[in-house]
Task: structure prediction
Amino acid sequence: MIGRGGLGEVLAADDLILGRRVALKFLKAEQDAHAQVLEEARAAARLHHPYVCNVYETGDFRGRPFIAMEFLEGETLAYRMKSGRISLHKAVAHATEIAEALAAAHEQGIAHCDLKPANIMITSNGHVKLMDFGLAYIVRSALLASQDDTNTMFAGSNPPGTPAYMAPEQIRGDTPDLRSDVFAFGIVFSEMLMGVHPFRARTLAATVAATVHDDAPDIAQYVPQANSLLKRILRKTLAKNPADRYPSATGLLSDLVRLRDGGDIDNAQVTAPRPILAVLPFRDLSAQRDQEYFCDGLAEELILAIGRIDGLRVVSRSAAFRYRDSPVALRQVGKELGATAILEGSVRKAGNRLRIVVNLVNPEDDCSVWSERYDRALDDIFEIQDEISAAISERLSVALSLTTTGRAPRVAQTTVRAYELYLQGRYLWNKRTEEDLKQSIERFEKAVDEDPDYPLAYAAIADAWVTLALYGAVNPLDALPAAKSAADRALALEPKLSEALTSRACIRAIFERDWPTAAGEFETAIASNPRYAQARQWFAMNCLLPMGEFDRAREELKLAAELEPVSLAIAASLGILDFYRGEYDEAVRHLQAVLELDERFYLAHYFLGQTYSAKGVNDEAICELQRAFNLSGSSESLSALGYAQACAGDRENAADALRQLLERATVRYVSPLLIAQVQVGLGQLDAAVHRIDEAYRISATDLIWFNLRPAFRSIRTYDRVPGILTRAGIV
Result:
């Protein structure tokens, strides 16, 4: 006998067949033991993770079912905390491993439902093991049930779990989900740091009441060195409203890894600040000046490869590439990007020969730290990238007296021809026009013809189709199958590829409107590569905003802006968020600031015009939207302009805008909602309802923002519109 509790007992035993020590868990005979043992075994058996206790098999002894599981030597976290609080450094290490185990469960749709210190083992090697999935709840299957079914799933019995570690919704008897585990994690993490339960009161009933109603104590009272990230993690895990928490442990894990690796979580550990490298676009010195795609691609691949070096931060592509052919001095570039080092270079290509020259510069004094010339055959391009990455890591460490550890993994290998086609496609994709995006798909498809096992090329195909759909340039029914097929193929080849994970998550959101799954997949993409700003931006704009989670969307956009400090698209997204939230003055301020950086940035004019229209400032609205249409010629700007003209009483020009949209729709895709928007402005509500229904039937991507757009405020409750939105899954 090694353990006994209210639900049963655990015995140590020897497996005589395989020659190993195991733990046998028996439940009390009066319980529905067979079903519970089987359910726990099924839940745990779906998980194969180093921080989850392994389940070997189930059996029956004298009418009593048992589970044979991994025998763990060590002590439970509950026993360990009897000795007092755990040091900050050790608590963060344990918490990260617990979150990693939970994330593995959550990715399978499994909520633990009874996370507490007694169910966490600290093994003899110092690592954690998450145990006891006896109350595990398969969340995704429950999401398919009706709301009535899920609300009554636990009716007639006490809420599952341990009261002192339940989330407020569990205490109220609501169905637990992944966010309930996140709350329980917050209690456990706080208890490790504080040495006491964060809501501890004199009685269990008072503790439970405090959990529902009271705020947790300020962690700084117990941990003076607590930084802002630690406080954010505790605030988000212990939020009373589930919508304010991390949607799953995946996003929690991402923040914990950042906290663990930040170097400032323990006063005993003092590390130098991480170096920040900016890789500028390489100059094309080839005779024909026709290798710009290759120069950009080489710099972009180096950004991706070097960005994976531990201890080194790399400025994003969109931020660094704004300085292409710029007369700005490197000292000023370094200041604007916050870079401690800048890599510049040139490429000269002649036939199958390459000459690549790279120069690492300290922007503080414009002095060269290191330079190198590579004269090689084109076939050696992957080896050259590896050499440059390793050399930069070493030089930053030695020459600039900065600390880096590790080196970038080798660049994913493919054929040189496939790689060239991929680089051509990325060059076109980054231009972001409709025609360039379509041409980029052609290049990517040729790349996979050359190499059918090239995951980045498949991910790029998915990215391009999703981008075309978001821009309203193609029929969603054409884009969806192509994007989904490419993303699935990329993930089959490389399951943790963040670009493909991001595209698939976006597909879930904008096409399928499966919000819980989309949120979980965005979290997975961010955890796979926390520095991939596009994942955070798309998560905010295409999932969190349609779900009405404005605060979380703002947090993700701010993190994206930290990664890409001069990205116009991300800066504009913050203004777009204010517009959708109804904070029009703030939206104007944000969008005007973007236009001060680039007065030709179409997106800022487009949303600034809509913001003025929502404020009733019609002349300014028409001026901005006319500017947006002149810059882009897009159907989106034409529709918004027509609506603004209708609101200003200019029905003649509004009707002309509607006529142009209808003519366009006969020769190319135009979202039905764009037509409906002008019809609403002109008071043609019945015709607008028909277009809204059409948008639902073809899965129009812009339907996900319907309830956020002021232009549709007057029609949201009109006639068949509420039913259409319900069928479409618009929240």
The CA atoms of residues 242 and 647 lie 39 Å apart. The chain is about 50% helix and 10% strand. The mean pLDDT is 83.
